[in-house]
Fold this protein.
Amino acid sequence: MTRYIRNRLVSAVPVFFGITILVFLMLQVVPGTITDLMGEQGVSSAADKAALEASLGLDRPLPVRYGAWLWDLLRGDLGNSYASGKEVSGLIAQRIGPSLLLTGSGVLLAVLIAVPLGVLSAWKPGSAWDRAAGVLCLVSFGVPGFFLCLVGIFVFSVVLGWLPSQGMYASGVYAGLGDLLHHLILPAGVVCLSGLGDLVRQTRSACLETLGEDYITTARAKGLSEGAVMVRHVLRGSLIPVLTTVLTHIPHIIGGSVVVERVFGWPGMGSLLFSAIFSRDDPVIMGVTVVIALAVLLTNLLLDLIYGLADPRVRYEEG
Amino acid sequence: MQGGRREVWQRFRRDRRAFACLCILGAEAACVLLLPLLLGLDPYTSDLTAGFWAPPSAGHWLGTDDVGRDLFARLLCGGRVSLLVGFCAAAISVAVGIPLGLLAGYRRGAWEFWIMRLADLFQTFPSIVLVLCLVAVVGPSVFNIILVIGLLGWTGIARLVYGNTLSVREKEYVLAARALGGSTASILRRNVLPNAVSPVWAALALRVGRAILSESSLSFLGVGIRTPQASWGNLIQYASNLTVLTTRPWVWLPPGVCIIVTVLCLQIIGDGLRNALDPRT
């Protein structure tokens, strides 16, 4: 098992470097730097621009800059924001909690709904459960996340007046768990619903496949109740494909929550990324990207481990 | 592929749901392309007699926007842009994904390693974040958005082609062609490609849907297509104003419904195509 964990860890490293190099190049390759934007606000002469670029280290060649950025990163320094001058790590530290809360509850909710629904619809294809699952899948595939947000706000905030449509707290500061949950329901619901379709679909097809196995017939023949067959044998046998789906959809769900944060004014990393993109605040964009990449890799790693625990074949083959 | 093109089409026609969706999509494309010409609609000039935020009327079926432009005309012209972006971006994804998948699957070795690692890289990272950064950086224009969405969408297609190529390359007819001294290029083109690529048609329909979703999200968030040009996404952007959201649903509901109908049709067409191409599943 330790060897398996080590192998997984090692394979995550190149992906991390790949992503950071990709984003770094992307931000650097384009003509124009922050100094051009500042030029519009007063720093005008060419000499001023050159001095500013030198002070930000933008006059050095690309690999050197990437190396320097990476070295700072390893020491936990993500640089300072161009826009506010504050430390990027501080900005991210403020935002990471709300983001984790939103994405985490969205994923959890999606898994809690999708797995039972997938099992039920595989158990009796064509039943009411199956049709409900089909409709849910279509909604999840076809309705863009931002439109779900708007419809949610329109129905639950405007027409019914049940739920707030903006922010995390009613009065701007933490005022009890109830208030927070009240604000969380709509955005987390949207995050959950946009990730739900693929999960239900995969759970259903994995269970259908397992239902065709001989050991299911055996379990039924020895007189086990249908419920016991479904939970103890079918669900267990389908665990690996379901886990794989959760694993491959984590990035998708994180991406979706970036948009949701924007619409609901949720004070998380997505909102931070947006304001940084609009002001070309490169250090902040890089910082947020790194954290998202780390989050994706960590969740993948975690699921890989569960994978290894759930199926001994995985860890023996790779170990 | 099971049977020729005609058989696939016949199997597809028998799938009533998928065929109906194809008809809806065709009708929608015809409306979007022809109606503005037939009705002489103009999405760019303000109608000062109607005023701003006019409610739906005989002259303006969906009312007017914040500067008095006809919203029905903008809906149709926005549809042109959204469909254009969707289909062109998917075409780019396929044009990049098929050769890369073929190369990785047929050549194996270093090609396989690097192409598949690259695909992993693009798939482990939330694509909307990359698209956002890229579009913000290269600037929003229809061409740039098509390019960015198209270039970032190749992984799924490449993976599909790669998997099929792996199984096709060991088939007897490919071995025979190689033994007869066919060049790699001609074997790939004449023997591998036709057999490895057919499932891509189904994936293509889904890809178009995803591209339309990406474009509308970008435009809604203000980094995609920008006014005065219209797209379904940026028409919904009017609804980020709470007054519009609550009191003028005719402004933001129709473009939303258009997106949903289009994407769902493409989804169902994709499923129908997959079944028609491979009736065993």
User: Anything to note?
Assistant: Chain A is about 80% helix and 0% strand. The CA atoms of residues 54 and 264 of chain A lie 39 Å apart. Residues 97-310 of chain A form a domain with the MetI-like fold fold (CATH 1.10.3720.10). Chain A touches chain B at residues 14-15, 18-19, 22-23, 26-27, 30, 138, 141-147, 150-151, 153-154, 158, 165, 248, 251-252, 254-256, 258-259, 262-263, 273-274, 277-278, 280, 285, 289, 292-293, 296-297, 300 (CB under 8 Å).
